[in-house]
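Handover notes (outgoing to incoming on-call)

Open items:
1. YD repeat-containing protein: sequence verified, structure written out, both below. Nothing else pending on this one.
2. Nothing else urgent.
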Amino acid sequence: MKTFLSLIFILLSSINLYSQRLCELGNYDLITNTIIGIEKVPFTMIKFIDNDKPQSEKIRYVYCYDDFGRLVNIDFKGNGNIYGAEDIETGCYKIENATYKYSDSLFPKNIEVKDTQYEYLIKLEYNNLNKIKSITNTDKKGKVLSSFNFDYDNKNQLKLIDKDYNYYYEWDEKSRIKKITIPDPFYIIREYNFKYINNKLSTITKISRFKESPDKIRTQSTYTYIYKNNKLHKVQYGNSTTTELSYSLYNYNNDDKVIITYYTNKDQYEYHYECYY
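YD repeat-containing protein structure tokens:
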């Protein structure tokens, strides 16, 4: 069975476009503990399931990945749930499924995308270290819909993504992600701050600030990571408005998957993810 510890070792040895949700590119995913679109997803499939829904609607969506950890299909099963697609300038528009076809196994120069509304092309350019230096999103006729650039520090670690408003990344001395700063187009700056103990992720503090008053904290949330038998066992979640903690538990009883189940602060089931190796 593949170890789940890869989720919490956030190392960026090379840049590839792993998840093509361009409107979310560079954000942090608290399910896979990866930077969206930058780091490899360590699963072949992720199912989001709500057991409180009727039988036909329990599976809310399914993500499928190829052997390189890249998104190849997303399907919302016609259950009324929706997926935010890649309109960078105006935000995520709503679709029910999407597929992605790569021009090359390791370093694709083109990615063909087809969803329930559009067909378009993502064009990639790489630097001499095979790290992405720019992405351009075009329609079928070649019209540029959006584009942005990547910048790296002196250790060739991701430092900035230029998406009209810059996303910033800081790394510690062991090349682990230390801080992510993400402004929105309007009023808010979001920060993710990471701390480690014994080379394992121990806490993530998520802070929302006002752009005009950056010293003023709008909201603050803390995710505490708890391990058992050297595996991630539990994540506790709390925010600045309450002292009660909700949480998620990790179940490794199946050889082919890990199940992540979310509970309220009253120990009531909310939903779960089935993450297949």
